[in-house]
Amino acid sequence: MIVSNPNGANSPGRKSANAPYQFEADLSLKRLRPALDAAWERLQVEPADVHEFELRLTEHWRPLFALLMHLYGSRYDFFYHLEQILLTAAEAWAARSPVLREQDHHRINEPDWFSSQKVVGGALYVDLFSENLGKLRQYIGYFKELGLTYLHLMPLFAVRPGDNDGGYAISNYRSVDPRLGTVEDLRLLADELRAAGIVLVLDFVFNHTSEDHQWALQAQAGDPEFQRYYHIYPDREIPDQYERTLREIFPTVRRGNFTWHDGMQQWVWTTFNSFQWDLNYSNPAVFRAMLEEMFFIANTGVDMLRLDAVAFIWKQMGTGCENLPEAHMLIQAFNRLSSIATPGMLFKSEAIVHPDDVVKYIGERECQVSYNPTLMALLWESLATRNVGLLSRSLSHRHQLPPRTAWVNYLRCHDDIGWTFDDADAAAVGINGFDHRNFLNRFYTGQFEGSFARGVPFQENLQTGDMRISGTMASLAGLEQAIEEDSEELKELAIRRMLLLQGITLSIGGIPLLYLGEEWGMLNDYDFVKDPAKAGDTRWIHRPKMQWHYLDELDDHIASGNGSIRSRIFLSLQRLIALRQSLPALAGQQMKLVDLGNPHVLCFVRMHEAHRLIVIANFSEYPQTIAGNLLRTAGLGRFFEDVISGDTIASSEPHEMESYQIMWMQRI
Ligand code: GLC
Ligand code: GLC
To answer: Which residues form the Glycosyl hydrolase family 13 catalytic domain (predicted)?
Structure first.
């Protein structure tokens, strides 16, 4: 069942995108015609290229107009902004390089290219991985060896001095942080990645700018035009009214969502850190200005834009100011404009919110791909509980997505883990959500007796008891504890836990995304506290610097046949990735759960065209026996090969799975 499709009948975007305003849309375009023609003339665009743009404009104009009309139609200067928006799109197309245009053609002809099982992603911070963009080019071979075809570079644009929230406090979207290189370096890298068959993903941090972005500086200088780019208030009256219904995202940074600015003597809306000023999208000038920044980033050679903090972009008094219908309309408007001017580019949604809300951002006409935070959280949940009940319950009605969209399945990213599962899903399997979150927080901070995890709290809110978890995948899966206790047995279990989870994100349907360092089982980096710009944010514990000497260890290992833990993790993961890429059943998203009647064992069938693969995963450290006959029904066969271990399994007999074993079974 499709839970809630943004293109479905109840979506506000759809309602306004269809019937209404067709006459108004057409007449407006007619009136804009001279300005557009003048732009083609001025920009010296070839007739064939103009024609292409115009075809796409015809396709998308009416729905785009309806969205903008809904968002901004009551503005006294709507038509002015409409014209600016159209011209911004025309300029972006004019500036698009021939290589990108050629790629646009391929993507238009193959719109679900990202559903292939060959697609595997990795994310990294340039400075921590390779120091700078120039040196990153030397590691393209490394990405290829690992099997990556998608690279997400964490924000690399110019930022404020000092703490910059890991690059998310941007002071200029058109220049690269000088410590990392230049825009030219970025373009070069994008070209080389493309030549190597690796797509480039960058963030579009569009909910907020840094307090030292040009617009914010102009606001601080008292310019009323730019003060309207943000949410700025002279006293507490309005902020207090808003606060009644708002959450706190970073409660340890500052209470509430507003920051007093001494210079202006005013309050500024700052959902995240106090130096990140939320943009005011009820002002069409902001939409237009950010559109221009989006196109600039797109034309450096980006294949996919990660839309940061999508939930927060629209505010309305009396609501939680998250996931509002207008937030969807804004993204849909960006999507239409991107489809017109940079049509090969996709959107990825970063909505770390309730699962019912996550899915609303996903659609061909909104974000084609989305992080899957519910799966992420529930995989860790199952690892802690050794029980797949809640995970299965959630997957049973939340995994399916509309056509031409995909999940991005990940275990760790640069952010914390929040337990964003649905309380009703939990209740359905007899779990109290609140208590369970408490348990998970205690488990993953190592406070629960018998826990193998070494996470640390992030944004603990003493008032609500709410907390999120920081830590690397290896430290959360028990490797840190195992090394501390110098126990071979515990090391073995930790490695198995990691491969179990990876084996699922690599097979469940969607794009698997590694946070680089995972391939070596990198541990928590407690040294982040030494850097004053990082000390206040425990997420730095799981953003360690790449340890390149592990690569030498790997070479030694291969030469001597004597494996270290690191090389074993690397080689196992590399092999799993290669296996995934060779299995056509793992393309697309189609997945059917199979109940094997064992609470420790997750089982599902993946199907694509005529191909099938059964995945069975034991979340317990104890061996589990599974009945063979269920496999026969699920997999329609008598004999299967587990392509991971190479073992043959006959469905006529029960089969014993090892501790934390994952099997990918193909009929033979
Ligand atoms: C997103 C980013 C996170 C950042 C926040 C504010 O959630 O992933 O790292 O702190 O947005 O930009
Ligand atoms: C995101 C999420 C939150 C996440 C934070 C970054 O937007 O909503 O869960 O932890 O920002 O830390």
So the answer is: 123-555
Q: Is 620 helix (H, G, I), strand (E, B) or coil?
A: coil
* Res 4 pLDDT > 70: no
Q: Strand pairing of 258-261 and 639-642?
A: unpaired
How many whole angstroms separate alpha carbon 60 and alpha carbon 127? 39
Provide the token pair at 155: 């924000």
Q: What is the pLDDT averaged over residues 262-279?
A: 98
Ligand 1 atom closest to residue 414's alpha carbon, by position in its atom list: 9
Interatomic CA distance for residues 98 and 311, integer angstroms: 35
Residue 9 has pLDDT above 70, yes or no: no
Closest CA to 100 of 285, 385, 301, 375: 301
Residue type, 223: D
Q: Domain 214-278 in CATH: superfamily?
A: Oligo-1,6-glucosidase; Domain 2 (3.90.400.10)
Which residue of the set 308, 322, 364, 537 is catalytic?
A: 308
Kindly report the CATH class assigned to 587-667. mainly beta
CA distance 555 to 558: 5
Instruction: For ligand 1, atom 3, name the residue with the nearest CA.
Output: 415
Q: Are 374 and 114 in contact (CB under 8 A)?
A: no
| List 185, 212, 303, 350, catalytic entry | 350
pLDDT, tens only, 525-577: 999 999 999 999 999 999 999 999 999 888 888 877 777 899 999 999 999 99
Instruction: Answer for the pair 608, 585: CB distance below 8 angstroms, yes or no.
Output: yes
Please work out whether the CB of residue 544 comes within 6 Å of at least one atom of ligand 2.
no
Q: Which ligand is nearest to the CA of 469?
A: 2
CB count in 10 Å sphere of residue 90 = 24
Cα(416) to centroid(ligand 1), Å: 10
Is 308 a known active-site residue? yes
Of 3.20.20.80, 3.40.50.2000, 3.90.1210.10, 3.30.420.40, the CATH number of 114-205+289-426+466-580 is: 3.20.20.80
Q: Which residues lie closer than 8 Å to 54 by C-beta, 6 or more apart?
A: none
Tell me the C-alpha distance between 26 and 69, whole Å. Answer: 13
Yes or no: say if 624 and 618 are a contact pair by the CB < 8 Å rule. yes
Per-residue pLDDT reduced to its tens digit, 303-328: 999 999 999 999 999 999 999 999 99
Third-level CATH fold of 22-109: Rna Polymerase Sigma Factor; Chain: A (1.10.1740)
Specify the amino acid at residue 548.
Answer: W
Domain boundaries, the chain: 22-109, 114-205+289-426+466-580, 214-278, 587-667
> How many CB atoms are located within 10 Å of the residue 485 CB?
10
Give the atom of ligand 2 at the shortest distance from the alpha carbon of 418.
9
| Ligand 1 center to 169 CA (angstroms) | 9
Cα 566 to ligand 2 centre (Å): 30
Residues 491, 551: Cα–Cα separation, whole Å: 20
CB neighbour list of residue 547: distance below 8 Å, 6 or more residues apart:
520, 522
Q: Which secondary structure element, helix H or strand E, spans residue 341, and what is its range?
A: helix 325-341
Q: Does residue 453 line the site of ligand 1, with CB under 6 A?
A: no
396 burial (CB, 10 Å; 0-12 / 13-18 / 19+) is middle
What tokens appear for 471 in the block? Answer: 């830590």
Residue type, 200: L
Q: What is the pLDDT of residue 18?
A: 52
What does the DSSP assignment read for 114-165?
A: GGSTT--EEEE-HHHHHSSHHHHGGGHHHHHHHT--EEEEPP-EEE-SS--G
Ligand 1 atom nearest 352 alpha carbon: 7
**Structure-token pair, residue 662:** 């994952």
